[in-house]
Design brief:
By secondary structure, the protein is mainly alpha-helical. The chain has helices spanning 2-6, 8-33, 49-52. The longest helix has 26 residues, at 8-33.
Length: 56
C-alpha cells in the first residue's frame, strides 16, 4: 500500500497519457477508414501527393 501511495501521481499521469494516445489512435483509424487525410495540409504543394492519395 505504501508503494501505491508513493507512486500515485506517476500512475495517474501514466493512465492519462495512455488514454490520450488511445483516443488519438482511434481517431486516426476512423479517419483512415472514412478516407480522410491525416496530414491536414494542402495536397497541391505536397511532394507526396501522388503516393498519399491514389486516384479512384
Amino acid at each position: 500500500m505504501a508503494w501505491l501511495l508513493s507512486n500515485i501521481w506517476t500512475i495517474i499521469i501514466s493512465l492519462v497519457l495512455i488514454l490520450i494516445v488511445t483516443l488519438i489512435l482511434v481517431k486516426l483509424i476512423r479517419d483512415k477508414k472514412s478516407g480522410k487525410s491525416s496530414c491536414g495540409c494542402d495536397c497541391g504543394c505536397c511532394l507526396n501527393k501522388d503516393t498519399c492519395h491514389n486516384s479512384k
